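[job 4471] stage=fold_predict status=RUNNING
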Amino acid sequence: MPSKTNTENKCYEGERLANLLQSTKREIELARRTDGSSLPEKIWLKQQFSIGVNDVTRVLERMRPCTELGKSAQIPPLISSTHKSPSVKLQAVLVASDTKPNWLTKHLPGLASSRGVPLILVKDNKGGSLRLGELVKLKTAIAIGIKEKGNTINKLIEDIL
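[job 4471] inference complete, writing C-alpha coordinates
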Protein backbone atom coordinates (compact mmCIF):
# COMPACT_ATOMS: atom_id res chain seq x y z
CA MET A 1 0.00 0.00 0.00
CA PRO A 2 1.53 3.33 -1.01
CA SER A 3 2.45 5.69 1.77
CA LYS A 4 0.95 9.16 2.04
CA THR A 5 4.13 10.76 0.68
CA ASN A 6 3.77 8.91 -2.63
CA THR A 7 0.77 11.00 -3.64
CA GLU A 8 2.08 14.34 -2.41
CA ASN A 9 3.54 16.84 -4.84
CA LYS A 10 7.32 17.08 -4.73
CA CYS A 11 9.22 20.05 -6.08
CA TYR A 12 12.71 19.62 -7.49
CA GLU A 13 14.98 22.58 -8.16
CA GLY A 14 18.67 23.49 -8.14
CA GLU A 15 21.19 20.74 -7.47
CA ARG A 16 18.48 18.28 -6.49
CA LEU A 17 16.82 18.77 -9.90
CA ALA A 18 20.15 18.43 -11.72
CA ASN A 19 20.82 15.12 -9.93
CA LEU A 20 17.31 13.84 -10.73
CA LEU A 21 17.57 14.70 -14.43
CA GLN A 22 21.13 13.40 -14.78
CA SER A 23 20.32 10.04 -13.18
CA THR A 24 17.10 9.77 -15.21
CA LYS A 25 18.99 10.43 -18.47
CA ARG A 26 21.53 7.78 -17.50
CA GLU A 27 18.79 5.23 -16.80
CA ILE A 28 17.01 6.06 -20.08
CA GLU A 29 20.22 5.36 -22.01
CA LEU A 30 20.82 2.15 -20.04
CA ALA A 31 17.24 0.94 -20.56
CA ARG A 32 17.48 1.71 -24.28
CA ARG A 33 20.72 -0.31 -24.61
CA THR A 34 19.48 -3.27 -22.57
CA ASP A 35 16.07 -3.35 -24.29
CA GLY A 36 17.60 -4.59 -27.53
CA SER A 37 14.72 -3.11 -29.50
CA SER A 38 15.35 -2.10 -33.09
CA LEU A 39 12.71 0.63 -32.86
CA PRO A 40 13.68 4.21 -33.70
CA GLU A 41 14.53 6.25 -30.61
CA LYS A 42 11.44 8.51 -30.75
CA ILE A 43 9.07 5.53 -30.95
CA TRP A 44 10.91 3.77 -28.11
CA LEU A 45 10.63 6.92 -25.96
CA LYS A 46 6.86 7.11 -26.64
CA GLN A 47 6.56 3.53 -25.34
CA GLN A 48 8.37 4.44 -22.10
CA PHE A 49 6.84 7.87 -21.49
CA SER A 50 3.59 9.70 -21.95
CA ILE A 51 4.80 12.98 -23.45
CA GLY A 52 2.81 16.22 -23.33
CA VAL A 53 -0.12 17.47 -21.30
CA ASN A 54 -2.74 15.90 -23.59
CA ASP A 55 -1.12 12.46 -23.56
CA VAL A 56 -0.53 12.49 -19.78
CA THR A 57 -4.13 13.61 -19.18
CA ARG A 58 -5.49 10.90 -21.49
CA VAL A 59 -3.55 8.13 -19.72
CA LEU A 60 -4.51 9.41 -16.25
CA GLU A 61 -8.19 9.61 -17.21
CA ARG A 62 -8.11 6.00 -18.42
CA MET A 63 -6.73 4.83 -15.07
CA ARG A 64 -9.26 3.90 -12.42
CA PRO A 65 -9.43 6.25 -9.43
CA CYS A 66 -7.87 4.95 -6.22
CA THR A 67 -9.98 2.69 -4.04
CA GLU A 68 -10.04 2.71 -0.26
CA LEU A 69 -7.19 0.18 -0.32
CA GLY A 70 -5.00 2.73 -2.06
CA LYS A 71 -4.60 0.73 -5.26
CA SER A 72 -5.43 1.96 -8.72
CA ALA A 73 -6.35 -0.27 -11.58
CA GLN A 74 -7.30 0.00 -15.20
CA ILE A 75 -10.93 0.52 -16.11
CA PRO A 76 -12.23 -2.70 -17.65
CA PRO A 77 -13.53 -2.27 -21.18
CA LEU A 78 -17.31 -1.80 -21.28
CA ILE A 79 -17.66 -3.21 -24.77
CA SER A 80 -15.63 -6.15 -25.93
CA SER A 81 -14.11 -5.51 -29.32
CA THR A 82 -11.23 -6.65 -31.44
CA HIS A 83 -9.55 -3.27 -30.89
CA LYS A 84 -7.99 -3.59 -27.45
CA SER A 85 -6.22 -0.57 -26.10
CA PRO A 86 -3.07 -1.35 -24.18
CA SER A 87 -3.45 -1.07 -20.43
CA VAL A 88 -1.06 1.66 -19.35
CA LYS A 89 -0.39 2.91 -15.85
CA LEU A 90 1.75 5.87 -14.93
CA GLN A 91 4.31 5.51 -12.17
CA ALA A 92 4.88 9.27 -11.81
CA VAL A 93 4.19 12.54 -13.61
CA LEU A 94 6.84 15.22 -14.10
CA VAL A 95 5.40 18.72 -14.66
CA ALA A 96 7.22 21.94 -15.50
CA SER A 97 6.31 24.59 -12.94
CA ASP A 98 7.07 27.47 -15.33
CA THR A 99 4.14 26.75 -17.66
CA LYS A 100 2.56 29.88 -19.14
CA PRO A 101 -0.43 30.06 -19.07
CA ASN A 102 -0.61 27.95 -15.93
CA TRP A 103 -4.14 26.70 -16.66
CA LEU A 104 -2.56 24.25 -19.13
CA THR A 105 -1.40 22.09 -16.22
CA LYS A 106 -3.75 23.23 -13.46
CA HIS A 107 -5.81 20.01 -13.66
CA LEU A 108 -2.86 17.60 -13.40
CA PRO A 109 -2.21 17.68 -9.60
CA GLY A 110 -5.83 16.80 -8.78
CA LEU A 111 -6.11 14.19 -11.50
CA ALA A 112 -2.81 12.55 -10.56
CA SER A 113 -3.64 12.45 -6.85
CA SER A 114 -7.08 10.93 -7.55
CA ARG A 115 -5.29 8.12 -9.43
CA GLY A 116 -2.60 7.67 -6.76
CA VAL A 117 0.16 8.84 -9.10
CA PRO A 118 2.88 11.04 -7.55
CA LEU A 119 3.47 14.42 -9.17
CA ILE A 120 6.97 15.88 -9.38
CA LEU A 121 7.22 19.62 -10.12
CA VAL A 122 10.32 20.66 -12.07
CA LYS A 123 11.36 24.20 -11.21
CA ASP A 124 14.40 25.71 -12.90
CA ASN A 125 15.70 29.16 -13.82
CA LYS A 126 16.57 27.85 -17.29
CA GLY A 127 12.99 26.67 -17.69
CA GLY A 128 11.46 23.45 -16.43
CA SER A 129 9.90 22.70 -19.80
CA LEU A 130 13.31 22.92 -21.47
CA ARG A 131 14.81 20.54 -18.91
CA LEU A 132 11.95 18.05 -19.34
CA GLY A 133 12.28 18.27 -23.11
CA GLU A 134 15.95 17.26 -22.86
CA LEU A 135 14.89 13.97 -21.26
CA VAL A 136 12.77 12.90 -24.22
CA LYS A 137 14.87 14.46 -27.01
CA LEU A 138 12.46 17.34 -27.68
CA LYS A 139 12.90 21.10 -27.48
CA THR A 140 10.34 21.44 -24.66
CA ALA A 141 7.90 19.27 -22.75
CA ILE A 142 5.42 20.66 -20.23
CA ALA A 143 4.49 17.26 -18.76
CA ILE A 144 5.94 13.75 -18.93
CA GLY A 145 4.31 10.65 -17.51
CA ILE A 146 6.58 7.71 -16.71
CA LYS A 147 4.86 4.50 -17.75
CA GLU A 148 5.16 1.40 -15.58
CA LYS A 149 7.26 -0.97 -17.68
CA GLY A 150 9.37 -2.70 -15.01
CA ASN A 151 12.69 -1.42 -16.35
CA THR A 152 15.61 0.48 -14.83
CA ILE A 153 13.83 3.82 -15.32
CA ASN A 154 10.99 2.59 -13.10
CA LYS A 155 13.43 1.34 -10.47
CA LEU A 156 15.10 4.74 -10.32
CA ILE A 157 11.79 6.60 -9.98
CA GLU A 158 10.69 4.13 -7.29
CA ASP A 159 13.88 4.86 -5.33
CA ILE A 160 13.31 8.62 -5.70
CA LEU A 161 9.72 8.39 -4.48
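[job 4471] summary: The first helix runs from residue 14 to 35.
[job 4471] exit 0
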